[in-house]
Specification:
The protein is built from four helices and no strands. By secondary structure, the chain is mostly helical. The protein is elongated and about 125 Å long.
Length: about 160
Amino acid sequence: MVSETETPAGGWLRGIRFSGFSLVMMVILVLAVVILAPSLRTYAEQRQQISKLSRAVADQQDEVDRLTSQRERWNDRTYVTTQARERLFYVLPGDISFLVINDLPVVTPLEADAAPVSTNIQSTKIDWLGSLFASTMTAGLAPQAGAPATLTPATPETVAP
């Protein structure tokens, strides 16, 4: 007995009629996929390698162009003179060179980072005046390092005959 309730998918599958031609075409299609799939995979991998190598060649060409322009700059006498002045602090005869030491701007701490200023007067627990006096006396009364003996020229009175 066949059930009277049939699903739409079941009815559609029963409605398909397989002929010999459709079966041959399906076999040819499956065979083509099996034969061509490895070749297509190899083709895709080779295209990826070609694109990577093309990018590498372009990067290397950019590097060659950069180095060529740098070499051309170093062939210019003015550029070499400028680099010698900036890097090695060379000057031409008659030029005056000025070196600015610690030319960085003074950085002020932010108000939030700084400790609040106290309005109370604080006293120190160390006698700084006594420490200053002791340090001065220690430095002044320390034995001197051996000074080199000075030679006095010989005079005729000091030379024995």
